[in-house]
Amino acid sequence: MVSAGKTPTGSQTVARALAVLELLGREGELGVRELGRQLGVAPSIAQRLINTLSEAGFVEKSLGNSKWKIGYKAFQIGSAFLASTDLNAATAPELHLLAEQHQVNSFLGVLRGKDVVYLAAVQSGGPISITNAPGSRTYIHSTALGKALLLDSTDDDVQTLLGTGPLKQLTKKTKRSVSAVLKDLREGRRLGYVICDEENLDNVFAVGAPVRDASGGIIAALSGAVPRQRLSARAIEELCELVKASATRASRRLGSLK
């Protein structure tokens, strides 16, 4: 359940409206009753919130059902955040290079709380269809983006962030123990990238690498995903180097020397 009570600096209504947007950003689509349940309010209150947000363009009804999703205005504001940062200019050429020249679906993400938030996703001409819209959230432990974002974190910090486990299982190959994730991170620090071998989605192999700013700190991560089926060892090696090189070039544009 999302907390939507009164905040010290804002009204209860504003807090609830923001909670609605957060829920839809995470879940994709929800009905009014489910929104009310997760907010801890009556369906009538949830409906009033939806009506107000809909009139302003922040949410809209999905085609073919009675559920609601993020609207164009929320996407517009989120896109403005990315466009106003150097991160967009530094990473956009690399995302398109991976997708258009190498047929690799490419993603940019940042760490927000205990989730990875997608900032950008570029569809390649390959068979994997991207469903991760900018602003949507995903798991840290099961994604290449998530693990790449943790490469500078201490074991204690990772333990605090992920908890004691077992971690949520997304596929048969999801690593559910924190110790298994820590092992991946130790290998990732040595190589400069991490892999996700069908840990988040079946038949999807992904590689993630950190994007650093002028201070050398990790501010985002870049990943590339391809079908796992018939992926040779040589192709895996080439993909790892491609993603690592793209992340390194993006980091250089941001002034990183690491």
From TrEMBL:
InterPro entries: GAF-like_dom_sf (IPR029016), HTH_MetabolicPath_Reg (IPR050707), Tscrpt_reg_IclR_C (IPR014757), Tscrpt_reg_IclR_N (IPR005471), WH-like_DNA-bd_sf (IPR036388), WH_DNA-bd_sf (IPR036390). Pfam families: HTH_IclR, IclR_C. GO terms for molecular function: DNA binding; DNA-binding transcription factor activity. Residues 11-72 form the HTH iclR-type domain. SMART domains: HTH_ICLR. The keyword 4Fe-4S does not apply. GO terms for biological process: negative regulation of DNA-templated transcription. Residues 73-256 form the IclR-ED domain. Keywords: DNA-binding, Transcription, Transcription regulation. The keyword Nucleotide-binding does not apply. This is IclR family transcriptional regulator. The lineage of its organism: Bacteria, Pseudomonadati, Pseudomonadota, Alphaproteobacteria, Hyphomicrobiales.
